[in-house]
């Protein structure tokens, strides 16, 4: 064993030199990758991924060469084949983890959905706080933090509420069926004059939308900030203005009505005590 060890000392020294060179090359390549990615607008997590991929590729190559030098009977092709079989086995065992990892990479490569955007996905509504390679943190508007796997955001439709600085909102208001609709439209428009915090270049729309169960429904549409809190504040002002204007014009905002129709006469109850 001692003689065998002495005979292998030169090859082990060469393998050690290869490992040291691999370390130096990996460090040098990582620095170059950091300088190149620093000039781009890539996310921090994606920059870390590029650095990890570069370092891992160099180290795998160096270790394969060192193993071939130490074990001459082991070819590089055999090592690569064994590594491929092992990778397939690991892939089946950790399918969900790799799925989220790949989805995280693809999400980071997108131009949409940045940190700070308000999004809605699968009933979750909130602001994006962090995007990693496996999961995305969404702070809901009610205060809870929801950690979503990246595969869910990649497979399902994601509604980005703040992709544009403004967006259109709408609310429904009903009036009684005996109302003059032209007059009601004029009253609603006049009550909304001078409304603040709405887009000045986009008019407020007032349309008759549908015949409801107890009322004729109007749809009021306006453009304002994309955040839900902007909508809540302006919707509150709109509803107050419209209600005040309709009441001053003696236009009824009806309660739900229920009409019972009997197609056959109601039978009279017989009282046997009255007979005789």
Automatic annotation (TrEMBL):
Quaternary structure note: Homoheptamer.
Compartment(s) of residence: Cell inner membrane; Cell membrane
Keywords: Cell inner membrane, Cell membrane, Ion channel, Ion transport, Membrane, Transmembrane, Transmembrane helix, Transport
Taxonomic lineage: Bacteria, Pseudomonadati, Pseudomonadota, Alphaproteobacteria, Sphingomonadales
GO function term, MF aspect, one: mechanosensitive monoatomic ion channel activity
Membrane topology: Multi-pass membrane protein
GO CC field: plasma membrane
Transmembrane parts of this sequence: 12-33, 53-74, 80-109
Signal peptide location: none
Key word Cell inner membrane present: yes
Protein name: Small-conductance mechanosensitive channel
Main location: membrane
Family per similarity comment: Belongs to the MscS (TC 1.A.23) family.
Repeat found in the keyword field: no
Pfam families attached to this UniProt entry: MS_channel_1st_1, MS_channel_2nd, MS_channel_3rd
Role description: Mechanosensitive channel that participates in the regulation of osmotic pressure changes within the cell, opening in response to stretch forces in the membrane lipid bilayer, without the need for other proteins. Contributes to normal resistance to hypoosmotic shock. Forms an ion channel of 1.0 nanosiemens conductance with a slight preference for anions.
Recorded superkingdom: Bacteria
């Amino acid at each position: 064993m001692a003689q065998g060890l002495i005979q292998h000392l030169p090859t082990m020294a060469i393998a050690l030199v290869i490992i040291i060179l691999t370390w130096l090359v990996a460090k040098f390549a990582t620095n170059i990758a950091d300088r190149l990615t620093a000039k781009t607008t890539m996310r921090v997590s994606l920059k870390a991924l590029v650095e990890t991929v570069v370092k891992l590729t160099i180290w795998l190559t160096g270790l394969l060469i060192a193993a071939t030098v130490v074990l001459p009977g082991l070819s590089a092709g055999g090592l690569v084949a064994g590594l491929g079989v092992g990778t397939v086995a690991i892939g089946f065992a950790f399918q969900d983890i790799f799925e989220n990892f790949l989805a995280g990479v693809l999400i980071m490569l997108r131009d949409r959905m940045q940190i700070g955007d308000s999004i809605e996905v699968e009933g979750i509504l909130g602001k994006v706080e962090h995007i990693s390679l496996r999961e995305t943190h969404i702070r809901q508007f009610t205060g809870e933090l929801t950690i979503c796997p990246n595969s869910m955001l990649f497979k399902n439709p994601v509604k980005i509420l703040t992709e544009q600085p403004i967006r259109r909102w709408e609310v429904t208001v009903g009036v009684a069926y005996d109302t003059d609709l032209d007059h009601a439209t004029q009253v609603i428009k006049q009550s909304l004059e001078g409304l603040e915090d709405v887009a000045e270049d986009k008019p407020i729309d007032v349309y008759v939308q549908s015949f409801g169960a107890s009322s004729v429904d109007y749809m009021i549409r306006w453009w304002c900030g994309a955040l839900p809190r902007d909508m809540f504040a302006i919707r509150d002002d709109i509803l107050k203005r419209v209600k005040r204007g309709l009441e001053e014009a003696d236009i009824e905002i009806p309660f739900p009505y229920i009409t019972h129709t009997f197609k056959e006469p109601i039978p009279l109850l017989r009282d046997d005590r009255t007979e005789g």
